[in-house]
Amino acid sequence: MERFYILFKRNKLAVGSAFILLVMVLAAVFADWISPYAWNDQDVSRRLIPPIFQKGGDVRFLFGTDFLGRDILSYIIHGSKVSLIVGLATVVIGGILGSVLGWIAGYFGGLTDRIIMRIADIQLSFPYILLALALAAVVGPGLWKLILVLGVSSWPVYGRIARGAILSEKEKDYIQSARAIGLSSLRILIDHAIPNTLSPLVVVTTLQVGRMIIAEATLSFLGVGVPASVPTWGGLLNDGRSYLYNAWWIATFPGMAIMMMVLAINIFGDAIRDILDPKTI
Amino acid sequence: MGKFFIKRLIDSIPVLIGVAIIAFFLVHLSGDPVLLMLPADTPPEQIEQFRHQMGYDRPILKQFVDFSVNLLTFNLGNSIRYQEPVVRLIWERFWATLKLAFVSLLIALILGIPGGIISAIHRGTIKDYAVSLIVFFGQAIPPFWLGLMMILVFAVNLRILPSSGMGTFKQLIMPALTVGLYFTASIARLTRSGILEIMGSDYIRTARAKGLSERIVIYKHALRNCLIPIVTMTGLQFGALLGGAVVTETIFAWPGIGRLMIQALYSRDYPLVQGTMLFFALIFIVVNFLTDMLYSLIDPRIRYK
């Protein structure tokens, strides 16, 4: 653990992206304090004001306003909450579900393994977005419903990796010895086998967070994501789509926000992977 | 070889069955499929009439049996909105989506593989970092936002490309780039790591020792062995490509299956939604199957596992 920390500090990308992520998280947590307006503060008399650096801009609305007079900057700050919550929660749900199923399938093998992997295969037969899309549309709007849908749709990714990792651990000597001295399977799994499978899972998890954020944005963009009462970057992008010709900023800034967040997370995840990789010293 | 083929074919069957089950139960997930499809203020008699018409008043098992039997005869029911057989609607738009997916894939390969090679060869230099930067951005940019930005720049401001429709090459570029760019990043990364791993191998050293030029070493020897993971990934990612096509088709009004599915979702035309989902899954299973076949051709060792 300490070694990890030392390596981490050495890697400039890891530190840089971690810093940016920290800023984003703080901005989301303290959104109500730092944001100039409420996200749904509407005032039609100040609609479609361009961002500050363009002619007609207003110093009160740095990124401009949308067709309802909402401040884009405030919307983006509040929207980051949703993106982060969805990104993290779906990964936790999908990750735990997938890992547990994968570990069980890999360690106990046999029929359990075949059944679990069949279900994974079937689920993986549908393009992920389409599956999530159809489920979300059928299940109806709701933040936690969406998180559940995205989480359940994504478990096979973790499942496969957990299974693969456990399969290779299973054959190793220390596991055989543990069995020989009579430890129960549960104890072996929890104390010995599973901790050694965590490394690839951590890597995949960090990469999945970015994907989930984009998935939520995509679904919200299509109108089947979070309900209208929740601020979401994808939703604002959808609104901005009708105004591409006369109010380009409505669609541009939320997209940049998504990109920045996912970029920071991905760079961070890559750096973590490099550090955890035993091949690098 | 034939045995492998048959085995894989048989393996696909449970998956197909599972897919059919999921598609069937999709409309029953929220309780009453009829309530899902009709507007909230429909009078009860009409609801019952509709229920009977669509066959949802029969026992579930019978519904599923009929559904499966219909599937085998390629009958996916009729679309509520269009009042036409779902299969016909899908078939009309299939080629549009296929075209888009194919060109996107081509773009991804043309940009990704050389990009990965350059990045690997010039590892640690500016070229490597430049490619890596593009790759990072490529995976962070939401595809639908990229599409909108391209419309903004090329259609709205520069006015050199049309923002919708299908038919001319100009109309194809932006949608294809939107779908393809995300994939390019994955391919570039895979190529890079693949080449890096191979370059240290013994047979590469032998080739160099023989005095072969670096170019031949790379293209004739290294690349060929690197192709396997790329092919596998391409096959697997094809599904993601199709998924990406869905949103892109909506943005660019590309008349494909993806857009059909979205419209079906909006108009609560669930027979059509089921049909398109099944179709996507079918394509995906077929592509996976073909990928496996291709994989076994490239690497004969697979056949004997």
Walk me through this protein's architecture.
The complex is a heterodimer of chains A (281) and B (305). Chain A is mostly helical and 281 residues long. Chain A contains twelve helices and no strands. Chain A has one domain (2-280): Orthogonal Bundle (MetI-like fold). Helices cover 72% and strands 0% of the residues of chain A. Chain A is elongated, with a radius of gyration of 22 Å. Chain B has 305 residues and is mainly alpha-helical. Helix content of chain B is 78%, strand content 0%. Chain B contains twelve helices and no strands. Chain B has helices spanning 2-26, 33-37, 44-54, 60-72, 86-121, 126-140, 143-157, 169-199, 202-209, 214-252, 257-266, 270-298. The A-B interface holds A 118-119, 121-131, 133-135, 137-140, 210, 214, 217-218, 221-224, 237, 240-241, 244-245, 248, 251-252, 254-255, 258-260, 262-263, 266-267 and B 14-15, 18-19, 22, 26-27, 29-30, 36, 136-137, 139-145, 148-149, 151-152, 156, 239-240, 242-244, 246-247, 250-251, 261-262, 265-266, 273, 277, 280-281, 284-285, 288.
Short recap of the structure:
The complex is a heterodimer of chains A (281) and B (305). Chain A has 281 residues and is mainly alpha-helical. Chain A has helices at 2-10, 12-29, 31-34, 72-108, 110-125, 128-139, 143-170, 173-180, 185-193, 198-222, 233-241, 249-276.
Helices and strands in order, then pairings?
The complex is a heterodimer of chains A (281) and B (305).
Chain A: H1 2-10, H2 12-29, H3 31-34, H4 72-108, H5 110-125, H6 128-139, H7 143-170, H8 173-180, H9 185-193, H10 198-222, H11 233-241, H12 249-276
Chain B: H1 2-26, H2 33-37, H3 44-54, H4 60-72, H5 86-121, H6 126-140, H7 143-157, H8 169-199, H9 202-209, H10 214-252, H11 257-266, H12 270-298
From the spread of the alpha carbons, the general shape of chain B counts as globular
Beta-strand content bin of chain B = under 5%
- Indicate the CATH class of the largest domain in chain B: Mainly Alpha
Helical segment tally of chain B? 12
Please state the structural category of chain B.
mainly alpha
CATH architecture of chain A: Orthogonal Bundle
